Amino acid sequence: GGFVFNAANAAQMLVQHLEARPVPPSHRTELVVPPELDALILACLAKRPGDRPASAHDFAARLAGCPVRRPWTEALAAEWWHEHLPVGNHVKRVEASDLHVDFGAVTRASE
After folding, report:
1. Residues 6+ apart with CB under 8 A from 67
2. SS3 for 27-59, per residue?
3. How far apart, in Å, are the Cα atoms of 24 and each of 7, 32, 39, 87, 109?
4. 25: three-class secondary structure by DSSP
5. How does residue 94 score in pLDDT terms, banded at 50, 70 and 90?
6. Of 30 and 97, which is predicted with more confidence?
7. Of 5, 35, 87, 96, which has fewest CB within 10 angstroms of its CB?
8. Does the pLDDT of residue 104 top 50, yes or no?
């Protein structure tokens, strides 16, 4: 997890967003990340809009083309969130069924 760029202040963060190349996801985790997924994530973070996926459909098609070692299931997602969700009084656990995806924006179904 974490931010795409790290900076000491907002001004430095803006400079990094404008000029720095993001680190590929495969370099930020001990997990195996297929090169196709690395390329897709970096495309989403491209500086020029024309270099990014043109639409959610384009993104979904490219994502579907990424090889996976094992299918991602609701049970695996719940297990991942259980292990990675920050613990504390201010955090409320959200179930996958509580979310609604609308044109790329994720909101709670009750909103």
Report:
1. 34, 36
2. HCCCCCCCHHHHHHHHHHCCCCHHHCCCCHHHH
3. 18, 12, 8, 27, 32
4. helix
5. low
6. 30
7. 87
8. no
What would the mean pLDDT of 82-110 be, rounded to a whole number?
55
| pLDDT over 70 at 81, yes or no | yes
> What single-letter amino acid sits at 63?
L
* CA gap 10, 81 in Å, rounded: 29
Residue position matching structure tokens 């995806």: 101
The structure tokens listed for 13 are 């963060």
Which value, to the nearest 10 degrees, does the dihedral of the CA atoms of residues 24, 104, 86, 31 take?
-30
The residue among 39, 46, 49, 58 whose CA lies nearest residue 104 is 58
Distance CA 34, CA 106 (A): 25
Residue 10 main-chain phi, psi, to 5 deg: -65, -40
Q: Please, are residues 77 and 96 in contact by the beta-carbon 8 Å criterion?
A: yes
Task: Report the C-alpha gap between 109 and 94 in whole angstroms.
Answer: 11
Percent of the chain at pLDDT exceeding 70: 76
